[in-house]
């Protein structure tokens, strides 16, 4: 019979999920101001960035790369299409799916906010150091791969 006292949970100041949420909020607060000016949500911006970077993609790949669930992506794509920022084209061999590509208006939106986005990144690099930020990104990628 185990008579040892139950362990206390780790302090919230050392909780990885809470630390990740705090870090996310620190990074996202200034980005949200930029996105408000752009007239898009965080999720819409992520989708635009993924499609801009990867080129025309299928919805499943976009959902994975933008960290979204498929039902949410469906709604987000509809909103982006309504704004003229993305366009859907039928898949050439699979009639059940389609490709999502960024439009000229979507490219222009990203270009219009590129300087501000780069400025925000430069602020983070100045504050924490480019090397430390790169190490953090490497560690987070490694952590994400561990869960995959």
Describe this structure in words.
Helix content is 66%, strand content 7%. It is globular. The protein is mainly alpha-helical and 148 residues long. The mean pLDDT is 93. A two-stranded antiparallel sheet has the order 1-2. It has helices spanning 16-38, 42-54, 59-65, 70-82, 104-112, 114-128, 130-147, and strands at 86-90, 98-102. The protein is built from 7 helices and 2 strands; from the N terminus they run ααααββααα. Helix 2 crosses helix 4 (70-82) and helix 6 packs across helix 7 (130-147). The two termini are 37 Å apart.
Instruction: Categorize the overall geometry.
Output: globular
Strand order of the largest sheet: 1-2
Q: What is the H/E string?
A: HHHHEEHHH
Structural class: mainly alpha
Provide the helix percentage: 55-70%
Low-confidence stretches: none
Radius of gyration: 19 Å
**Biggest beta sheet attributes:** 2 strands, antiparallel
Counting H and I runs of at least 4 residues, what is the number of helices? 7
Number of E-type strands: 2
Overall pLDDT level:
93
Give the secondary structure arrangement, pairings included.
Blueprint: H1 16-38, H2 42-54, H3 59-65, H4 70-82, E1 86-90, E2 98-102, H5 104-112, H6 114-128, H7 130-147
Antiparallel strand pairs: 1-2
Helix pairs in contact: 1-6, 2-4, 6-7
């Amino acid at each position: 019979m185990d008579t040892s006292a139950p362990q206390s949970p780790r302090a919230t100041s050392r909780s990885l999920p809470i630390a990740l949420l705090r870090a996310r909020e620190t990074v996202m607060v200034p980005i949200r101001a930029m996105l408000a000016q752009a007239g898009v949500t965080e999720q819409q911006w992520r989708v635009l960035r993924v499609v801009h970077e990867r080129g025309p993609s299928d919805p499943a790949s976009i959902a994975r790369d933008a960290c979204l669930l498929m039902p949410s992506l469906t709604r987000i794509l509809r909103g982006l299409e309504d704004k003229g920022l993305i366009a859907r084209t039928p898949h050439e061999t699979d009639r059940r799916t389609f490709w999502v590509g960024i439009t000229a208006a979507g490219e222009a939106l990203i270009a219009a906010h590129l300087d501000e986005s780069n400025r925000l990144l430069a602020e983070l690099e100045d504050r924490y150091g480019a090397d430390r930020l790169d190490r953090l990104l490497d560690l987070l990628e490694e952590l994400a791969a561990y869960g995959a």
